[in-house]
Amino acid sequence: MIAVEKTSKSGWEFTGTNGEFKLKYPERSSFLYFPLVNEGGMMSSVTPNLHGQATSGHNTFLTPPLSVEDLHNSRASRNFWVYIEGKGAWSAAGNSARQHAQAYESTSDESELEAGLLWHRVTRESRELGIKAQITSIVPCGQDKVELMQVVLTNTGAAEIIITPTAAIPLYARSADDLRDHRHVTSLLNRIYISAHGVEVQPALSFDERGHRVNHTSYGVFGVEGEGRTPVGFFPVQEEFIGEGGSLDWPEAVVRNLAPQTGEEGVHKEGYEALGGLRFSTASLLPGESRSYVVILAIESERIDIPGLMAKYGSAAAFDVLLEENKAFWADKVNTVEFHTGDHAADQWMKWVTLQPVLRRLYGNSFLPYHDYGRGGRGWRDLWQDCLALLIMEPADVRSLLLNNYAGVRIDGSNATIIGQQPGEFIADRNNIPRVWMDHGAWPFLTTMLYLDQSGDLDFLLQEQSYFRDSFMSRCRERDASWDAAGGSHLQTSTGETYKGTILEHILLQNLVPFFNVGEHNNILLEGADWNDGLDMAAQRGESVTFTAFYGSNLYDLSVLLRTLQERTGLESLELAEEMTLLLDTLEKSLNYESIIAKREQLNLYYAAAPNKVSGVKVTLPIAKVADDLAKKAEWIFNHLRRNEWVQSDHGDGWFNGYYNNDGDRVEGEHAEGVRMTLTGQVFPLLGHAAAPEQIPHIVAAVERNLLDDNIGYRLNTNFGGIQQNLGRAFGFAFGHKENGAMFSHMTVMYGNALYKRGFVQEGRKVLDSLYKLSANFELSRMYPGIPEYINEQGRGMYTYLTGSASWLLLTMVTEVFGVKGRLGDLLLQPKLVKEQFDEQGKATIKTIFAERMLEVAYTSTGSRKYGEYEIHSVLLNGAEVTLQRVSEGIVIPRSILRALPEGELHLLQVALA
C-alpha cells in the first residue's frame, strides 16, 4: 500500500495477520484508549490502566462518564486489587497511588499491551512482589449490553504467596447530565442490591427537572473465580470501601485488608454512590501457579437476570469461547476488504482504518473519551459519508439506508439536523435553534452515485420517499406558525396528505435550491457553516466558494446521469412537483445567471410556492430538457469560478479562493501580513470539474508551498493571524489545532482522492503516504493503529477512531489506488498503483465485494511497475481468460459475468500489467 519506515521500537508493532499489535509500557503514553463495542448497544472504552467508560447511551452510564482529560486525572477505573500477605496492596490494573508514584522509577511494573480487532489485553508484572496479572477485556458480540474482564494472576516469584483479590468498579448508574449538576442528589435515588455474584444498582427515578420518571434500567458488576466460585463478600458503597481520607487508588478496605460485607440477598443500601466491589476468597499461590477471575459489567432495561447472565458469561471457559467468537466476528467484518502490498505493516494498519467506519456507525460521534459531541447520534453528513465505506464493506444493507436517509430532506432543499435512533427517523428541532449547514445538500448525491455505480440500480432513482417537515421553512429564514408537532414531521399537500417524491426529485431539489441561494459575489451563501463547522460566524454575507464548486459538479454529473437514465431505460420524461419548475428556469424563460437579484427573486418565488407544503400536483417534464438545464447551470458555475475566484500568486502558481466573510470580503490571497489559503478551497474544485486541467499543477504547487508542513502534514489552512469573528469560531482555536491549521485527516484524504481522480497519481500518493507516516509514528502521534480526526501542532493524533476520513481513505484505496470501481453496475478496473506498492514478486492484491460476489483482484506486473508505463494486458477469472472490453479509463467486466459466479466463494481475478 503506502511505504513507511518501521514503527519506532518504543512504539507498537504488528504481531499477526488480523491487525494484532503489541506495545511495551503503554501507560507511559497519555490519552491512549481502545474501543470495545457490539451491535447490541454496549459502548465501552478501555485504557492501559483499565480506565475508560461503559455505557449504552447518554442517559445510561454504568461507569462515570468522562472526557479524555479524565483518563489520567480521575481515580475511578475498572480496578482489580490484590492484597499480598506480608507485602501489601497491588493493583493488577496498575491503578494504585503507589504504582503511580513509581511510574518513572526502576521499581515500576513491567507492562505490555496486546490488542487485536476489539479485544484488549494488558500484562503487568511486579518483580518486586513476585506477581503477574494478565487482564483481557472484550464486549461480547451479540445483543447483550455486557463487558467482560478476565483476570489471571500468576506467582512469578520463588516462594509461595497468599493473595486476597478484590474487584472494584464504580457504579455511576445514571445520565451524563448528572455528573456535575445534581451529582449528590441523584445518588440519593440509588437502590443497591447484592446477590451471590455481585452488586446491582437500579435508581428509583430518572432525574430530569423537566419531569422525573420512574427508572427501570439496572446496572451491575458481577464476578466468579475459575469455573463458577462466587465472591465471598462485597463492598457495595464507595465511601465505605475507600474509608475516611482514602481514595479509589488507595482504598482502606484493600490496604488494610478489611473484611467484606456479607448477608442475605436483597436491598443493601439506599442513597449512596455505589461500587461494584467484589471480594474473592483468599488463596495460596505456589511458584508458577495461577488463578483466574471473570468480572462482568452489565446494563439491562429492567432488573438483571443474574442466573441467566452468569450461566452465559460466568466462567473462565465461557470467557475463552466468547473471546474467540469475538475475534472471528470482527475479523469477518473487517476482512471483507483486504490489501496485500509490498508493506505488510501498512496492510495491517489498513485493517484498523477499515474498522473505523463501523465504529462510527456504532458509537456515532460520541461515547469515546475524545468526542465531537457527547449526547449521542450522528449528524447529516455522517449518514451519507459512513455509507461510502458500507458500500464497500456491507453493501447489502446500503440501499435501504440510503432510501431512509432521504426522508430527512426538506422541501426547501435543507434537511433535518436531529437524527433519530432508528434508520430513517428524523426529529423536529426541540431546541429552537434555526440553522442550516449549506453543504448538507451536496453529499447525498455523491454517495448515491457511488451506490449506482456499484449496483447499476437505476430504478432506485425512481423510488418514492416522503419529505421532512418541522417549524422551519425557507432554509430557516422563516417559521411556520401553522406547524404542530402533533401533526407529524412529514411534508403534506394542501389537502393534508403525505407528499412523496422520487429519490431523483429529492436529489434535484437539494442541488437546485442552493444554485439560486447566492451572496453578493454570486457564490452560494455560507449560511450556518459548511463542511468546516468552525466557519459559523458569517451567516449573513459569508459565501462558500468551495461548495459552490461541489454543487456545480453535482449539477453536471446529474445532467449526465439523466441522459444515461434516458438511454438505458428509455425514459423520456420525469414527474416532479409542479413547484420545482421555478428552479428549472431554462424550461420556460432563462434567467440571467450573472444577476444576483434575479436569482434571489426566483428563489423567493419558489419559497412562496412551497411554504412548508406543496400542492401535490406533479408535472411531466422532458428528461432531456431537465438535463440541459442542469448542464447550463453547471457550466455557468465553472466559468464563474475560473474567472472570478482564481487567486494568482506572485510565485507563478495559484489557487481558488474558498470563502467570503461576513463583511463581504474575499478571505484568501496574498496579503502584506501573509498568505491566506485553505485546503478545502482546493479540494472540491479538484474533486469535481470546476478546476480546469491547466489549473491543477498550479494548485498542487501552491498547496505544497503554503500548506505542507513536514512535521504535521498538509495543514487545513495557513495562519490567518488572530480570531476572525466575521468568519468563524475556528480561528479562536490556537493555530495548528483542530479546524485552525491542523492536519485535518478528512480534507487531507479527500485532497489525495481528488489528485488520484484527476490523474496526479504520484502527488496523490504523497498525500496519503504523509498521513500514514504521521499516524504510524508513535513517538509523535501517540495513538494506536488507525487514522485520527486530526494531528495537532505537536504531531499528536487527536480524536482517534471516530472520523469520516476513514471512509474516504478506504474508498480511495479501493476505487482509486487499486482501481476496483463500478460503472453503473459493471466492474471497471483502473489501477493506479506505483512501484513501491508491489511486493517482491511484482504483485499487489485486493480482496473486496462487488456484484454481491467476493473477489480477489491480483495485479501482477511483468514489466515496469511505474504508474503510467503499464496497462492491463490480460485478465483471468478463476483461470479462464476474459475478453477485454477497453474504455478510456481501463477495462470493463460486465456485471452479468460476475453475477453468474457461484455465491459464497472467493473468485480470483488475475490481472497482468505490462
Automatic annotation (TrEMBL):
Q: Where is the signal peptide?
A: none
Task: Mention any Pfam family matching this sequence.
Answer: Glyco_hydro_94
Tell whether Glycosyltransferase is among the UniProt keywords: yes
Glycosyl hydrolase 94 catalytic domain location, by residue? 629-819
All residue ranges annotated as the Glycosyl hydrolase 94 supersandwich domain in the record = 114-314
Task: Indicate yes or no for the key word Nucleotide-binding.
Answer: no
**Keywords from the UniProt entry:** Glycosyltransferase, Transferase
Q: Which domain of life is it from?
A: Bacteria
What InterPro entries does its record include?
Answer: 6-hairpin_glycosidase_sf (IPR008928), 6hp_glycosidase-like_sf (IPR012341), Gal_mutarotase_sf_dom (IPR011013), GH65_N (IPR037018), GH94_catalytic (IPR033432), GH94_Enzymes (IPR052047), Glyco_hydrolase_94_b-supersand (IPR010383)
**By its UniProt entry, which PANTHER family does this protein fall under?**
CELLOBIONIC ACID PHOSPHORYLASE (PTHR37469:SF2), CELLOBIONIC ACID PHOSPHORYLASE-RELATED (PTHR37469)
Q: Under what name is this protein listed?
A: Cellobiose phosphorylase
- Tell me the organism: Paenibacillus borealis
